[in-house]
Design a protein that fits this description.
CATH topology of the largest domain: Aldehyde Dehydrogenase, Chain A, domain 1
Distance between the termini: 78 Å
Helix content: 25-40%
Oligomer: single chain
Number of strands: 20
Number of helices: 16
Strand order of the largest sheet: 14-15-16-13-12-17-18
Number of domains: 2
Strand content: 15-25%
Bound molecules: nicotinamide-adenine-dinucleotide
Length: 486
């Protein structure tokens, strides 16, 4: 390590609002740390705790101790406490949002927007009716379907929308009567630590624990005998490891993984509206959204019009540090993702027939900035089409025959979302039935609501979150049959 690095390292501290992990109701700083990098500069700007296995064990033990009382707490009381959590999160949107922008890269207005949406989502989720059901009472026996909490849930989140994803896991795990050990990505730990610190006094000790550390910490959680369920959001490759590791202790597992969402634009589509929706989805959060448009299939009769409309939108996006109020798109979140997306653009430049219609600039110098990029002329087997780019680069592919477009849209191991753009919504809905994806939107792309179960088909996931179906995945179904007469 150079002198400069050592000096920099010595300068780094834990931010006041994220001064440690939340374990058993206390803020624990620990003795080991990871550096957190600002993607707008590429330099570390703060430290976060790097939990030891013993600290994870303490968090799991605290969550287990808290479970009996929390699961016995009336659901109205749990709802009321979670509403207070949402209110506190909203009240702290500015300071937590600043930390989110610095560690994640997104513009401050987007960070604050993510926090506001997360708070609203929590308030909505805890209104869902998750009560038990009477299957029958026929004079012979009374059969009930009850739903019991599982115990301790382990929540593992990625770096793209840390507060939103943490909120979904907190809301679902705690509302259903479980306790939670939550682990953010090592690349964006601070906003989630700040979240835990901000709401620590609202919840009984041990009900929510927030631990930070490296990828090892995630692996320890998935194998931990004290954890009953893993709710994981991240990549397909890690999801596979989570599933394997969870098998040893028969953990319940929900996996929300990657996507390669198609948008199919029919010849009768409103082109301006389609371009608005596709550009917003493909370039929002710098393209780092699981359910972003990642492939556009446009009918040949309107390809030029759609491309032109997309170019106008892409070129209007101002790229810069998230702390600059003028920026509409920040940097990619980390060097690995930046290199991957830069590599995909490089590959396009070396592909005969492929064309960068706009963008394509990978900025040199500090930070991980790439301009919004639209590519035409690629074949379906090009890496940018086959792989999840997770960055602001979208390929536009042309079709003549709708059946062919549907087959090409489905020719992927992913199956998260898809959209159909048409002035005939009934036709769009019929096409949706032929798309292999967990959700298909007509004339919009993305967005999930508290009452609609969300998740992926094929390699994009395992199970659902949100909605009553998602809530149930945090519970064990139990049938209780009582004879009517003895
Ligand atoms: P990742 O899989 O690299 O990491 C996700 C989390 O898993 C991190 O907290 C990481 O520390 C942890 N982890 C790493 N190794 C682990 C292991 N062996 N066991 C347990 N946990 C481990 O994903 P990422 O790069 O942070 O996130 C990007 C991916 O997330 C993209 O593919 C994106 O599509 C996906 N994503 C999906 C959704 C969804 O709802 N479907 C939402 C957001 C992001």
């Amino acid at each position: 390590m150079s002198d400069t690095m050592e000096r920099t390292r010595a300068d780094l501290v834990l931010p006041d609002i994220a001064s440690g992990m939340l374990i058993d109701g206390a803020i624990v700083t620990g003795e080991h740390f990871i550096e957190v990098i600002d993607p707008a500069t590429g330099a570390p700007f703060a430290l976060a705790p790097d939990a030891t296995r013993a600290e994870l064990d303490q968090a799991v033990a605290a969550a287990r101790r808290a479970f009996p009382a929390w699961s016995a707490t009336a659901i109205e009381e749990r709802r009321a406490l979670l509403v207070r959590v949402a209110e506190r999160l909203r009240a702290q949107a500015e300071p937590i949002g600043k930390l989110l922008t610095t560690e994640q890269g997104k513009p401050l207005s987007d960070a604050i927007g993510e926090i506001a949406r997360a708070a609203a989502h929590m308030e909505g989720l805890v209104q869902l009716d998750i009560s038990d059901q009477l299957l029958r009472d026929d004079g012979y026996e009374r059969v009930e379907i009850r739903h019991r909490p599982l115990g301790v849930v382990g929540g593992i989140t990625p770096w793209n929308v840390p507060i939103m994803l943490a909120t979904l896991k907190i809301a679902q795990a705690l509302y259903t009567g479980n306790t939670l050990v939550l682990k953010p990505s090592p690349l964006t730990p601070l906003s989630t630590l700040a979240y835990g610190q901000a709401i620590a006094d609202i919840l009984p000790a041990g009900v929510l624990n927030v631990v930070s550390g490296g990828n090892d910490l995630g692996a320890w959680m998935t194998g931990h005998p004290g954890i009953a369920k893993i709710s994981f959001t991240g990549s397909v490759a890690t999801g596979r490891r989570v599933l394997e590791s969870a098998a040893g202790t028969f953990k319940r597992v929900t996996l929300e993984l990657g996507g390669n969402d198609p948008a199919i634009v029919l010849p009768d589509a409103d082109i301006e509206a389609a371009a608005d929706g596709i550009a917003r989805s493909a370039f929002g959060n710098c393209g780092q959204i699981c359910m972003a448009v990642k492939r556009v299939f446009v009918h040949s009769s309107i390809q030029d019009a759609l491309l032109n409309a997309l170019v106008v939108r892409a070129e209007a996006i101002r790229v810069g540090p998230g702390t600059d109020p003028e920026s509409r798109m920040g940097p990619l979140q980390n060097k690995m993702q930046f290199d991957k997306v830069a590599g995909l653009i490089h590959d396009v430049r070396n592909t005969p027939g492929a064309r960068i219609v706009t963008g394509g600039t990978v900025r040199t110098g500090k930070g991980y900035f790439i301009e919004p990029t639209i590519v035409a002329g690629l074949a379906d087997d090009a890496p940018l089409v086959r792989e999840e780019q997770f960055g602001p680069v979208v390929p536009v592919l042309v079709y003549d025959d709708l059946d062919d477009a549907i087959a090409r849209a489905n020719a992927t191991e992913f199956g998260l979302g898809a959209s159909i753009w048409t002035s005939d919504p009934a036709k769009g809905s019929e096409i949706a039935g032929r798309i292999e994806a967990g959700q298909v939107w007509i004339n919009r792309h993305g967005g999930n609501t508290k009452d609609a179960p969300f998740g992926g088909a094929k390699y994009s996931g395992y199970g659902r979150e949100q909605g009553v179906a998602g809530m149930r995945s945090y519970m064990e179904l139990q049938v209780v049959a009582t004879p009517s007469r003895q």
